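Tokens as discussed.
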């Protein structure tokens, strides 16, 4: 996968892209990154990328020409049209399902804007996706794009040491993940549940599913309205509700 990032502050990505899982993904040739200062694609002699909004109003608006030029440059020669993603608080709420969708692409371009907003022609004629990581406003799109890139890249084949890890993550199944325990079996008087020490994998799987349903019911009951439960899960959930 090729990921191109367009930002006025490319130095913000130095640490994030070259540590931990993202560094490993590049070393394994699962992904390549390019970070471009789109100010370089302004046709203004002062490399100006913003201007006052037509009709008046507060703040500055990003001009269309630097971003159109930059996207054209970073995607030149691409066999398949890229997904061009605009980081925007007005965008679609980013989810694990969206991460899985984007992980199947060959080329992603992230546009990280600043100022009051974007010229509307960027939305209408350049981008394919507008994404938001929550109902709040950040100074720019850099931090949001970092979060999404991390979420997508960890799903690529060979990036995580155990391919089952991403499948079992919270939200991947539509439910929150079950609790985890490790050694020692008892710490400060607090013990690991006996079932996890039993060696009975059938009972362990059943316990984990029940705990996953319990945690989702308690913390994110809204998720239960969006998934189809198996008959066994439905029976477990009804029992949990009756015991609350």
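Sequence:
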């Amino acid at each position: 996968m090729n990921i191109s990032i367009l930002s006025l502050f490319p130095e913000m990505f130095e640490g994030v892209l070259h540590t931990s899982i993202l560094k490993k993904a590049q070393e394994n040739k699962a992904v390549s990154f390019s970070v471009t200062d789109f100010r370089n694609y302004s046709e203004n002699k002062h490399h100006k990328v913003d201007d006052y909004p037509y009709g008046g109003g507060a703040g500055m608006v990003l001009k269309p020409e630097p971003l159109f030029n930059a996207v054209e440059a970073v995607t030149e020669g691409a066999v398949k049209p890229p997904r061009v993603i605009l980081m925007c608080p007005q965008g679609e709420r980013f989810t694990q399902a969206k991460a899985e969708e984007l992980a199947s692409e060959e080329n992603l371009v992230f546009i990280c804007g600043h100022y009051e907003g974007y010229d509307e022609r960027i939305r209408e004629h350049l981008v394919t996706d507008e994404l938001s990581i929550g109902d709040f406003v950040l100074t720019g799109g850099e931090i949001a794009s970092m979060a999404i890139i991390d979420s997508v890249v960890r799903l690529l084949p060979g990036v995580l040491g155990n391919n089952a890890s991403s499948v079992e993550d919270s939200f991947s199944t539509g439910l929150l993940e079950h609790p985890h325990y490790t050694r020692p079996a008892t710490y400060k008087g607090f013990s690991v549940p006996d079932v996890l020490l039993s060696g009975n994998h059938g009972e362990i799987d059943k316990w984990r599913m029940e705990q996953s349903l319990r945690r989702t019911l308690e913390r994110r009951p809204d998720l239960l309205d969006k998934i189809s439960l198996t008959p066994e899960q439905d029976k477990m959930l009804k029992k949990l509700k009756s015991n609350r």
